[in-house]
Write a structure and sequence with these properties.
The complex is a heterodimer of chains A (277) and B (277).
Chain A (H helix, E strand, L loop, with lengths): L6 H6 L5 H27 L4 H8 L2 H34 L5 H7 L2 H4 L2 H12 L6 H6 L8 H26 L2 H9 L4 H30 L4 H5 L9 H10 L3 H30 L1
Chain B lengths: L9 H31 L3 H8 L2 H34 L5 H9 L6 H12 L6 H6 L8 H11 L3 H13 L2 H8 L4 H30 L2 H7 L9 H10 L3 H35 L1
Classes of the chains: A mainly alpha (277), B mainly alpha (277).
């Protein structure tokens, strides 16, 4: 130890506490996150391939994947579309109640999901404040696929707004000026100059909103109706299997679900890095 | 900025503002208002009866207890992890940071399920726990564990970028001048990151008190025993006691509003701290 410590290493180790804090970090991470999560793999490995396949590919499970993926996808797309408008208006324009609205955007992060669930269900029920208008048009919202989309849109709302907002703030005004002095009209400037700048942030917001929607449970179960094959999301199916003490079946579906969510986020990360280049 | 082609025509601006207000109105303002209106629909007497009911009071107590354990634990972890990650260089740092974020991308139901797999009667440690007459699942320890898991990253992910931005020159100076590790931490680092720490704690606390899915899996819904506030809302709602459900939900709404207000206050301080760095 006394012979040759490289200067760089020596300078870094001026501060004490690396072993203590790193040791605690790794211990706590293992106890709370890694060991409990590894139970999923451990439990699934007790199944034979046929048992695993019959759990994860049963018609009921397949229907729940379709519903969960589809509803989260539509919710995330709603948020990309409207969230970018909201972010743009909050950064660029002045209007009444702007500060209040800006603060309220984070409500879905702060509001317990069960509260969001019962509020949305009451609003969109056939006699609810909003639901009655849809009902008059012959479109039921609560207890259908559409109701799930509504709550997943709510749950994912902050993600796109909050990832796109700082990018709009940092847009270089000179580039917009250059585009306009080179004869581009406003629409061309937005499409050719601003939108490409926003794309990585939009994609991140989309992925976060989508991933959050996939896993969401608390708000959805109130409005979904929870009919097997029709309005049963995958997290609910996992819950039902647990209540029936079918732990292996629940775990197998959870494993598939986790792999899909991690894969999605990983894929978007890779795509994003390519877009930035 | 005000050149004719550098902003949108007036009708487009007003159109986008209108879209913003309608979107945020439908998804945020109306649901929030609905909770309070429904809570007070049958008068203050019913409201008071619902929130002062013994089952509600015991749910409030359990929710506060859970947060009082989970938040300090994750705060301690956040401080240790950010010290190790931001002040030192080591291999695998990126992997460690990814692992810390993992609980955010796990569905709440799966977050609860892993603790059932570990500590449940059929779980890995189940037989041992039964033999020693210890109860974790369907009891308070399980609720606390699941809450610690879902709120795991909040403080760490707030502090790591902040400490990295601030660098470690000040700490190195303190150590060179003869301060020991604890003195350096208490007198130099902690004052520098206090607003970021508070920000993380506020978000962590909101999630800890509002978590539904993960807690629902491990709770067993025993009234007066293992019922948290969000679970109590669900029970009342499913028993068609809508006014009572919304009355209890309005308490959680107030928590969310206080969280948002505190968050935007602290946000400004954090920004000032980052710019000063």
């Amino acid at each position: 130890m006394t012979r040759s410590i490289s200067p760089a290493l020596k300078a870094q180790r001026v501060l004490p506490g690396f072993r203590l804090t790193m040791g605690f970090t790794l211990l706590y991470l293992s106890l709370i996150v890694l060991i409990p999560l590894s139970m999923i793999v451990l439990k699934t490995s007790t199944l034979s391939w046929a048992q695993f396949w019959s759990a994860v590919a049963s018609p009921r499970a397949m229907a729940s994947y379709r519903l969960s993926l589809g509803a989260s996808l539509v919710g995330a797309m709603m948020n990309v579309l409207f969230g970018s408008v909201v972010a743009w208006a909050l950064v660029r324009y002045d209007f009444p109640a702007k500060r209040f609205m800006d603060g309220l955007v984070d409500l879905p992060f702060a509001l317990p999901t069960a509260v969001a669930g019962i509020a949305m269900t009451t609003l969109y029920a056939p006699n609810g404040w909003v639901g009655r208008y849809f009902h008059a048009l012959g479109i039921p919202v609560a207890y259908t696929w559409l109701g799930i989309v509504v709550v997943l849109t709510f749950i994912g709302l902050p993600f796109v707004v909050r990832t796109v907002e700082p990018v709009i703030q940092d847009l270089d005004a000179a580039v917009e000026e250059a585009a306009s002095s080179l004869g581009a009209n406003r629409w061309q400037a937005i499409r050719r100059v601003i939108l490409p700048e926003l794309l990585p942030a939009l994609l991140t917001g989309f992925a976060l909103s989508f991933a959050r929607g996939l896993g969401e449970y608390g708000s959805v179960i109130f409005i979904a109706g929870n009919m097997p094959m029709r309005t049963e999301i995958t997290p609910l199916l996992i819950m039902i299997k647990l209540e029936q003490f079918d732990y292996a079946g629940a775990t197998a579906i959870a494993l598939v679900f986790l792999v899909v969510s991690f894969g999605l986020l990983l894929g978007v990360n890779v795509l994003q890095r390519r877009l930035r280049k | 900025m005000n050149g004719p082609s550098l902003t949108e025509p007036r009708f487009v601006r007003w159109g986008l503002i209108a879209v913003t207000l309608v979107y945020l109105g439908i998804f945020l303002v109306i649901p929030l208002a609905a909770v309070f209106v429904k809570a007070l629909e049958k008068g203050v007497g019913v409201y008071w009866a619902a929130v002062s009911d013994p089952a509600a009071l015991s749910a409030i107590r359990l929710t506060l207890t859970t947060a009082a354990i989970a938040v300090p634990l994750n705060m301690l972890f956040g401080l240790a992890a950010s010290w190790a990650i931001a002040k030192f260089e080591f291999r695998g740092k990126q992997i460690l940071m990814t692992l810390i974020d993992v609980p955010f991308s796990v569905s709440p139901v799966i977050s609860g399920m892993i603790f059932v797999l570990l500590f449940g009667a059929q779980g890995l440690l189940g037989p041992w726990l039964v033999a020693h007459n210890l109860k974790i699942i369907f009891a308070v320890p399980g609720i606390v564990l699941a809450t610690v898991f879902v709120t795991f990253p909040f403080v760490a992910r707030e502090l790591i970028p902040l400490m990295e931005a601030q660098g470690s020159e000040e700490e190195e100076a303190a150590v060179t001048l003869g301060a020991n590790g604890w003195q350096t931490f208490w007198r130099v680092t902690l004052p520098n990151v206090k607003w970021g720490l508070l920000y993380g704690v506020i978000l962590c606390n909101a999630r800890a008190m509002g978590e539904f899915g993960a807690v629902s899996v491990v709770s067993g819904h025993i009234r007066g025993m293992t019922n948290t506030l969000p679970l109590h809302v669900e029970i009342l709602y499913n028993e068609y006691q809508f006014s009572a459900a919304f009355a209890v939900a309005s308490l959680l709404c107030l928590l969310a509003l206080v969280t948002l207000a505190a968050k935007s206050l602290v946000e400004r301080k954090v920004r000032v701290g980052k710019e000063a760095a």
